[in-house]
Amino acid sequence: MLVVAIFTSCDTTEVEICKDELHPHLALVDLQYSWDDNFVQKSDIPDSMLVIGHRIVNTWFCGYHSSTQQANNGGEYIFNKPYDGDFNTGEETDNDNATDGNVDGTQGSNGTTTEKETGDKFYVKNGDYHFISYNYFHEDDCYEYLGLTSEEIAERVLNDRLVIKYKSYPLSDDKVDKHGMNWKDYNPYSTYITGSTPIYYFSSGVKTIDDKNENIIKITPHRLTQDIEIHFSIERDSVMIEKMMAEVSGIPESMNLITGVVDPSHTLKVLFMPKEESDIQNDTQGNTAQGQSSWYGLTNYVGHISVMGLLRSDDPTFTTGAGIMQLAIFSYTIDKLGRKVSKLFNVGINLYNTIGEYGKIIYQNKETVILNIDNILKIDKDQVLETVDGDRNLDNWIIYKNIDLDV
């Protein structure tokens, strides 16, 4: 009887029986991030991102937490690490769908690793891949992910259902950044997000990864969150403004990471600090002069948020719900005896027409969205002055309360 044995070689220096499904080759992937076309300042770049490798034929997934600072700087597998032990051995785990492994080290609000700076290089099994990448916030107060486990990832990615969701908190929670102020909420319909951290996303075409070739994946993320600037003006008569705090409502709670579509069925709120337009210009130009040198006049303010989107109110007359901005204006005057008298003005505005220039909801616009509130807010040393304008296309200011802080 003639027995024919067929051997295939996995290496030019030794002969072995090699069945790819039992001992697949591992290829090093060089992740190269490019931000030039997506950022104005380098400080905007997240220190790390999650990369999901999706092998299309003989489907397999892995999740890898990668540094964005330099190529092959090392990272850590979030799930389905393809091997254990030394990187050069190519030793496989017993199970192709290994159990999840969390990142060693902790991340701050921008996803940066604070304890472990280097780790595994990014190896995957040979094959044709689709890669996606986005900010990853492990054990973070800001975001949570739906579907980011080895058990769920295949179904979620294949059906475009990978979701990122804001964590939200009551105003009393210390995680809500109140900027050191005692915020009074006149729109208590929902809870708060902790801040407005941008989310960035990248999706590649199909890439063939082979251990015999150099495998470079150029990652050029684009912003999923929407940068929104809110511009408004205050006209003052015998009053100085020391500081100001603001709140905007109508922020969608969740977003599909793959499609970028938000879910407006449940919305949240965020607190932020508007600045004088002149102060922002001084900061940009390196000047130190501050605005408001006079007790009278018109001052322009700008507030900035980066959120999943912004939903407008269902009706321009509503004073609560989505699409409302509140202001707490901390000011002071001088009384007849020459004493400084501090005063707090609490006002709001339904941004129905202002947001409406972009439709019912703002999300995924290519450029920064500028919201210009055309109705000027007027205050004197005692009160907020007339706020109602007869123009139906102008949003009107709402007076909540004027409080003398010095008794």
Q: How are the SSEs placed, and which strands pair?
A:
Blueprint: E1 26-33, E2 48-55, E3 60-67, E4 75-79, E5 123-125, E6 127-135, E7 143-146, H1 153-158, E8 163-166, E9 200-209, E10 215-219, E11 222-223, E12 226-237, E13 240-256, E14 262-272, E15 275-276, H2 277-285, E16 296-307, E17 310-311, E18 324-334, E19 340-350, H3 352-356, E20 361-362, E21 369-372, E22 377-380, E23 397-404
Parallel strand pairs: 1-10, 12-21, 12-22
Antiparallel strand pairs: 1-5, 2-3, 2-6, 3-4, 6-9, 7-8, 8-13, 9-11, 12-16, 13-14, 13-18, 15-16, 17-20, 18-19, 19-23
Mean pLDDT: 79
Largest sheet: 7 strands, antiparallel
What's the assembly state of these chains?
Answer: single chain
Write down the overall geometry: elongated
Tally of individual helices: 3
Q: What proportion of the residues is helical, as a percent range?
A: under 10%
Low-confidence stretches: 1-23, 84-118
Span between termini: 109 Å
Which class best fits the helix and strand makeup? mainly beta
Number of strands: 23
Strand content: 35-45%
Tally of individual domains: 2
Give me the Rg, rounded: 27 Å
Along the chain, the helix and strand elements come as EEEEEEEHEEEEEEEEHEEEEHEEEE
